[in-house]
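Re: the 609-residue chain
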Amino acid sequence: MRKTIFLVFLFLFITMTELSGQTVDYSIRIPDPKNHYAQVSMNYTAQEKGLVKVSMPVWTPGSYLVREFAKNIETVRIEINGKSVNASKSDKNTWSFPAKKGDKIFFQYNVYCYEMSVRTSYIDEDQALLNLASVCAFIEGKEKTNIHCVVELPGAWNNIISHCEIITSERIKGAPHEYLLTFDNFDEMVDSPIQLGNFETFNFNVNNVPHRVAMVGIHNANIEKLKVDMQNICQTMVNIIGEMPCKTYTFIIQNVEAGGGGLEHKNGSTLMMSRFNYTNAQSYQGLLGLIAHEYFHLWNVKRIRPVALGPFDYNNENYTKSLWIAEGITSYFDELALMRAGYISKQDFLNTLAGYINNHENRAGSKIATLHEMSWDAWIKEYRPNENSKNNSYSYYSKGLIIGALLDMTICKLTNGKKSLDDVFKTLYKDFYLNNKKSKDGIGYTDEDFMNVCNKVAGVELNADFNIWLTTTISPDYVGIFNNLDIQSKKQEINRNSWGLNYETSNGKNIVKYVRNPGPSTLLGINVNDELIALNGVRLNNDLEQVWNKLGKPSKVSLTISRSGLMREISGNFTGLQEVEYTFLLGEKQMNKEFWSQTGALQKWLISK
C-alpha cells in the first residue's frame, strides 16, 4: 500500500512540476539496509532533441581526489516514454542515449554504499549516511535545473536530517516515511548530505541562528558539556567575520570505532569522532579544533572561495593554487580559536605553531615542492601518499597554516595592531561573496586577488616576501619575524641520532616502510621493504635505535638485511639525522597582554606596549 501511495504521489508531483517549471525528479530508497544498497531513480522531460548524458560524479567538493563513484553503480535501467532503452556507457562514468523533445526519461540504478567516511556513503541496518555526490548521478547540461528528491525512510528508522537551508523536508501525506527535499540545483543537492536512522539530536543558537546536532551511534559524550563547548567554538568563529551567513546550521557527528575527520558544507558539516574518546582530554580538544575548522569553512571555501571551486565540474579535477588559503589558513584559525575560546594558553598556542614549523622544516619534501605546487597537485599527492611522499611533498594544510600565521603577524606589526588577518577575511567576504552583481553566490578569488586584499589591509606591498614563500622552497626567517614582535625566538641545529626511517614489526620481521631522502639510512643504502635482521651482529627485535645506543653509538655500522628474500650486508658510516628546532616563548610582560586576542591577532597586545 505504501509503495502504491508513493508512486501515485510521484506521478502527481511530476505532473505538477511539468506545469510549474522544469525540474529533475529523484527518489532514493533503501529496500534492505543490511545489504548496503540504495536505489536511485531519476525522472526528467527532455527539453530538446539530442543525446542525453547521465553522469556519476567522480569526486565530491571539499575532498580533492578522484574517487570514481561510478564503480559502485549496478543494474542501470533506462526507459523513454515507458519503453526500455539500451543502458550502454559512453565513458567510465557516463551513460548516453538519444531522446526527442518532450520524451519522458526514467533512469534508475542501485548504488553500493558501504564506505564509512565524511566524503562517501554508508548504509547498514542501523543507519544511512548519504553523501549525494557518491549516490546521485546528474544530467549533463542540466546541473542548474531545480531538483526535487523523495527520500524513503526505512520502516524501522524514525529520523532524517540534512544540511542545506533551502531544503524543504516534508513528510508526504499518506506516506509517513517519505520525505520531499528540494534544491535549486545539483551543486546544492551535493552540498546536502542526508543522515537517516535512529539517532539523538540537540540544539543551540549562535547569533540567533538555530544549530542542530545529530549524534549518530553509541558514544560517551557529556551532551550538556559538548553543547556548551560547541556553542563557544562556533561563536568564536562567527566573531572573525562578524556576520552569520546562513539561516540554520547542521552538524552530523558520526561516532565510530576509530578514526576522525570532517567535511564542510554551505550550511553544515559532517564530522567523525571515536565513540569513546570524549573523555580523553587530547581527543576532545582535537574534536573542538575540528569543529572550529569545518565551521570556519562557512565563510572560507563555501562563500569566500578560490575561483576554480564553484560551480563545479563533477567529471574532472578542479585545479587551484589556492588550497593553502582555503584549507591552510582555515587550519590556522582553528588553532587560534582554541586559544581565543579559552581551551589552551597563549604559550600553548605558540608551542603548537612551533610544532607545525618544526615538522614542516624537517620534512624532506619541504625542500622539493612549492606551496602552489602542493595545492595544484592535491589530486595526485595529498590523498594518495606512498612510501616516498614525505621526501617529495608535504601538506598545504600545514604550510598554509604557517603562512597564515606569518601574514597575521606581519599585518599586525605594520598597522601597529589596528588590523589583522581577521580584517582580510572581512574584506574578502564583503568584496567577493557579498559582491553578487555577477552571481548570487558571489565571485571567486585568485591568489593575486587574495594578496591584493592583504596589501590593502596592511597598507603596504607584501608580495615580495610572500611570493617567495608561495613559489619557492626558501624558508621564512622565523627568528627574525618573531623577534620583531618581541617574542623570544631560537633556532637550534640538532643531531637526533635518528636513522631517518620507519619500520613495522609483523610476525617477528622488522619491515622498512619509509626511508628519509636525504638521510643516514639512504646513505647506507637501506630500501623500503627491506627486513632489518641484525646491527653489528646483534639481533634486532623492533629496537634498532636502542641496540645502536647499547653498542655505544658506533659511527661504523653493519646491517644484516633481507631484500626480496635474499640476505645481504650493508656497511658504512652512520652520522645521525640533522634537524632544526625552533622555540618561541612569551616573556612575562607579554604573557599578561592580549596576545592574539579575540578582537584580532596581536591587536591589544601591540597597542598596549
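The CA atoms of residues 197 and 285 lie 28 Å apart.
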